[in-house]
Design goal:
globular; 31% helix; 13 strands; UDP-N-acetylmuramoyl-L-alanine:D-glutamate ligase; 10 helices; four-stranded mixed sheet; 337 residues; alpha/beta
Amino acid sequence: MAPLGDTAAPAAAATASSLVVSFGEMLIDFVPDVAGVSLAESGGFVKAPGGAPANVACAISKLGGSSAFVGKFGDDEFGHMLVEILKQNGVNAEGCLFDQHARTALAFVTLKSNGEREFMFYRNPSADMLLTEAELNLDLIRRARIFHYGSISLITEPCRSAHVAAMRAAKSAGILCSYDPNVRLPLWPSAQAARDGIMSIWKEADFIKVSDEEVAFLTQGDAHDEKNVLTLWFDGLKLLVVTDGEKGCRYFTKDFKGSLPGYSVNTVDTTGAGDAFVGSLLLNVAKDDSIFYNEAKLREVLEFSNACGAICTTKKGAIPALPTTATALELISKGTN
């Protein structure tokens, strides 16, 4: 198997042309110290950095890639702690700002007995929601090979306008746009508002990753019915990936489609698994975007991404559980389910 990442290479050593810039939210997840209990039943919580776009940036850096994060934090202990964590993980923090008038977002994340999550958010409003278009570091965004984002930054103004402006700046500079909607229904006014908001920028992306649950939510149909999945396809999309949890993933391009099995691991916490998958995928697209047109290369990359996602479920929290290239290759050598 060809090398897909280099744990020996520091993030700064990667070329500017392989830079992936993630945009959006970073927050503190409070995770019960005992799995399988409700928030009310939990006697204690473990503090963990979270937020999908930030997790993706850290995943890329941990795999030896070049990443940066653009977002806003409260000018508080948690906000400064999170930016320090980005830096410690090799992520460029030039695009990070602090707001003196709003707090860093918090989320209480319940781990059910099967490792799946339930969320309770404290954002009223949080600093990440208050990023404005005028505050964007467009120079950093324009240096990227890939601009990556989710949908939480679309929920409220002024962050929504900042998100759209950043995306348009990236597109006009010829930068690839990557979208992982990361549906978090408690944050939206209604389920339909979430669907409308998520789909409002759908056709701006070059590639999209969705989970099977998100396919079911967005299409209001069976996530395993290929006809249903393909209602999310549009002309101009280069790659649509559907992750199916421990079962692996499915992929669709203009010219080919297929699936790859997942890996059997002892799942402790699924938080960040999708972000580890996405980070691995973006790392490899940034190096060689011919994978959109070469099925053998794409399958190799997605096999690696499946392994990264699986490894991330074996520890609590997202960023502490992110894999290295060595651990992913070790799991691949053991084989799938």
